[in-house]
Amino acid sequence: MFRKQAYKHASVGICVFDKSTSKMLCASNADQSLEPASVAKLVTTAAALEILGPNHRFETKLEYSGQIEHGVLTGDIRIRGGGDPSLGSHYVNKKQDSFLDEWVEAVRKAGIQEIKGKIISDAGIFNDEPVSPYWLWEDMGNYYAAGIYGLAVFDNSFELGLRSGRAGTRPEIISVQPPLRKLTIDNHLVAANNDLDSAYLYGAPYQWDRRLFGTMPEDRSRFIIKGDIPDPPGYLAERFKEELVRHGIPVSGEALSARQLPAAEQDSSLQTKVFHTTYSIPLSQMIRIIHEHSDNLYTEYLLRHLALTVSDKPASARDGLQVVRDYWKNKGLDVSALYLSDACGLSPNDRISARFLTQLLLYMSTKSKYQSIFEASLPLAGVEGSVSGFLKGTALEGKIRLKSGSLQTVTSYAGYYKLNGKSYVIVMMVNYADASRSQVRKDMEEFLLML
What is the C-alpha separation between 6 and 439, in angstroms, rounded? Predict the structure, then answer.
């Protein structure tokens, strides 16, 4: 079916490996490096599980400097980021800001009733390059390309509420959640006579101005799109100060991130005392979220934590990618077909071969001590997450665990298939087919049903 006219100029890579016989049942262009989209996430999540372990958690610490006398802190409170992408994440808690209530209570328990100093957020665990230089400009400002900071909050994203009239008119911005008082939006959006969400926000990290372009359906009383918070560490410091004041704990100083301080005050080794620690969800749960929802943010955070396993300098994506590559090379995988510019598959520079993904999946299912955790983290096709529509209503519904990958010109799936005591590794990657993504998915379904 991949010999149809629609695939004449496409690049198609397929591997089907029978684990019970240790034989490759099907291989087509298996060694060609193709654009993987989100199946690239498997390379980092598997390495993170192996290196850090399923129970690993990340820490966000509250510290204070100075002295507390008669309930008054003469000094600063510092939020020391530990690179936890789950802090205030919508995947973890419906009340995303519940951790702030815990923080206010922790301040009270520390005996602090007033703060004569600043609220400082410290994101220095990661370097100061929040977004990949290999991502497209059209993605910058949107939630799926949110920046990676050493201190994250609310998935580093916000929801923009819109209301539209008839086609051709300018929709109205009616809400921003969470409230971002510094945010300005130059609205160029247009209502259209369709049901498509083609609205995009554009902007750079640390810059609070955003431009809104594209179209949204006409005559909608409420329509939600998502953008990235331009400076999550700075925003969190301000939000925490607001919560303290609202609960009757006055703060005389500014709320800002450490990067905004004079150089002499940025030193994170200054004497401070930790008085509260917030722990992330375990790594195994993060990996499940990544695989089920194809979450770019969580994946990029794991990549930077891998960088920290070999160096104590601020983590970078570049160092994390080197750790990933070295890890799989040392495990005997042929990494000559592995080219990654990021961890999540958003970069158009990413390339992986179907054979490499097959080798990786085989390793995780035959040699990893976390085999069951990794396999169970992949969602069931036709049932769960980003693959809930794939193979739905077919004989294979709920029988294959897959990670999906999808960009404008890319459709990919990789995972495990068990049937009648046999177990298979399946990788399918299609680039630049002369067909819609929905048609490519249908052809992939047909292929799997023929096996």
Answer: 10
